[in-house]
Amino acid sequence: MKSSGVQGQARTVSAKALLGNGVHGSRGPTKTKSRRQRWEVKPSAMAENTLNPIRAIVDGMKLTPNPEKPMISLSIGDPTVFGNLPTDASVLQAMKDAIDCQEYNGYAPSVGYLKSRQVVANFYSRPEAPLLAEDVILTSGCSQAIELAISVLCNPGDNILVPRPGFSLYKTLAVSMGIEVKLYNLLPEKSWEMDLQHMESLIDERTSCLIVTNPSNPCGSVFSKDHLQKVLRVASKHCVPILADEIYSDMVFPGCSCPSLASLSSDVPVLSCGGLAKRWLVPGWRMGWILIHDRNNIFGPEIRQGLVKLSQRILGACTIVQGALESILNDTPQSFYSNTISFLKSNSEICFNELTRVPGLNPVMPSGAMYLMVGIEMDHFPGFKNDVDFTERLVTEQSVFCLPASAFEYPNFFRIVVTVPEELMVEACSRIRGFCQRYYRPPSCDGNDLDQ
């Protein structure tokens, strides 16, 4: 019997249709996609590769304070912890006004309001390093500024040059992105200047960024104009752009100056990262920025467009703080800055002078920021394996917590944060002295010395 037209059409249907092409109504045998037989949800490679060295070390320490002594923490780089360094009343009023006007409750462009970017540009523009609004990217804190800067300059397999000792976030971000970190040395005997010869030896064809932190966390050092010019000559010679972490810019002690890298550069392009956190004592407000200095158009439009694209991954910095920026930058009295610096310098001098007299410790006097590094002559403290063991026992016996500098890739030092109230700084130094006096062992004389 002759088949119907429908049946005849069915005979001509392709094999692809019979195997299932996603069209409803297919009745032929279908090849189902393989599926998991059980739940197996794993973290991404980026998550697995993200490690904060500070947390890795601190979380592994046995921190049990002496119950007979109140805890004094000299480890946290947050100037608000003890309540003795409030921001200025004018800064708070600027935020209140931004809230009350109800003009900043919505989304802003991912790079920030144009008016707010212009305010930042005006504040930091100098004749030798001019800035326009388009040269400013507002970010969620300086940390995001650093992340965007690394992300726009580097590809997986590239390498960046990072100071040792240095802020741990650089490595945390880079390694999570598949970027190699090469550590160049800072020299404590030269007030933590960069070892330029060592730094230059690390540069190769995959070096995409040199990070310069000035003033320094964790060292509190401030580079001289002459030293910065030498840094720029190396970067220019090898055509390496600079990420300048300048969050502590202007937080320098009287008698020191801290010119921005961009103001000294004639050709090296610089991405300068900063923010409100430290100078205005409001780290929780999460307002940062990138200043794009590209006098010779080396970055060109591509880097700027790349920063815009990367900023669009989140919806930008807090709009209320953006609305307050004009008043914060323009109306904060000079006395507020001066009082903060005076306090930090005084506490640094107290700490340095007290610990200089302690056998086995070698503090390095800072010139700015909020930190002081102290070397430990481990040979004279045989009861301790390393700086981590030393600082752990300091907590156990004296309830004083200083951050071991192994967290900054620099063993046998510890970092002190100098933002604590003066009386606590004095007490902490007294406890550290007592601790060291208990465990210090002077150099021993061998038999040959005795025979002479």
Descriptive overview:
With 452 residues, the chain is an alpha/beta fold. The protein is built from 17 helices and 14 strands. The N and C termini lie far apart (125 Å). It is globular and about 75 Å long. The longest helix is centred in the C-terminal third of the chain and has 23 residues, at 334-356.
User: Can you give the mean pLDDT?
Assistant: 92
Poorly predicted sequence stretches spanning 5 or more consecutive residues = 1-25, 447-452
**End-to-end distance:** 125 Å
Helix-residue proportion: 25-40%
Q: Characterize the biggest β-sheet.
A: 8 strands, mixed
Rough shape?
globular
Strand order of the largest sheet: 2-9-8-7-6-3-4-5
Tally of helical segments: 17
Compute the CA-based radius of gyration: 28 Å
Structural class: alpha/beta
Number of strands: 14
Strand residues, percent = 5-15%
Short description:
The chain has 17 helices and 14 strands. By secondary structure, the chain is α/β, with parallel strands linked by helices.
Keywords:
eight-stranded mixed sheet, four-stranded antiparallel sheet, alpha/beta, globular, 17 helices, disordered N terminus, 452 residues
